[in-house]
Design a protein that fits this description.
This is Redoxin domain-containing protein. Residues 48-186 form the Thioredoxin domain. This protein is α/β, with parallel strands linked by helices. It has five helices and seven strands; from the N terminus they run H-H-E-E-E-H-E-H-E-E-E-H. It has two domains: 5-35, no CATH class; 38-186, Glutaredoxin. A seven-stranded mixed beta sheet has the order 2-1-5-4-3-6-7, with helices on one face. A hairpin with a 4-residue loop joins strand 1 (58-61) and strand 2 (66-68). Helix 1 (5-22) packs across helix 2 (24-37). The longest helix has 18 residues, at 5-22. The radius of gyration is 19 Å and the shape is elongated. The chain starts with a helix and ends with a helix.
Length: 187
């Protein structure tokens, strides 16, 4: 049986799709593409900002210690929902780490994984040498912080106003984000 040029082309295309969708090479390519297209997130207009009033939420750190999101009340907050299997989440992690390194003593950070396996999360964080404060949800998050998609990132002002509400990968270490954080921290 002889394979035509068209069939050969289709088989090659199918092989490429399988590699991109179902192998670690495909994940790596998806991560790099997401990094290339990640821009600074946009800031919500003041009149459109919602204010978080419910901080009743338990988070579990990677050592199994429970903490309350109430600790974030009155602080500038960066809250990120992510997963180890999510290419856009992985793509934005280096920019988040750079931002965290510079702002960790000035504001509250929480990176909440939606993975079910805490060991997988620990291994991911360790392998990539991240020092981000990573948590697992201990209880359901406040309604205003729920998202059906990841990554989902929120930046809150000291009064709980949701200043940035971004779904999808972004460049969190941009000058625009840093200027916004500096502004929020000075208020």
């Amino acid at each position: 049986m002889k394979i035509s040029k068209e069939q050969r082309s289709n088989l090659i295309l199918l092989a490429i799709l399988v590699i991109l969708l179902f192998t670690p090479i495909g994940t790596t390519i998806k991560v790099w593409v997401n990094r290339l297209i990640a821009f600074s997130p946009s800031v919500e207009k003041v009149e459109n900002r919602e204010i978080l009033t419910d901080y009743n939420w338990t988070l579990i750190d990677l050592k199994g210690k429970a903490s309350s999101f109430e600790e974030a009340k009155g602080k500038v907050v960066m809250l990120n929902f992510w997963a180890t299997w999510c290419a856009p989440c992985i793509a934005e992690m280096p920019s988040m780490q750079a931002l965290y390194d510079d702002y960790k003593d000035k504001m509250y950070f929480a990176f909440v994984s939606s993975d079910n396996d805490i060991e997988k999360v620990k291994n991911f964080i360790s392998k990539n040498k991240y020092t981000l404060p990573v948590y697992m949800p201990g209880t359901f998050s406040p309604k205003m912080l729920e998202s059906n998609n990841i990554p989902a990132t929120f930046i809150l002002s000291k009064d709980g106003s949701i200043v940035i509400d971004k779904v999808g990968a972004a460049d969190w270490n941009s000058q625009k984000v840093r200027e916004q954080l500096d502004k929020l921290l000075s208020q």
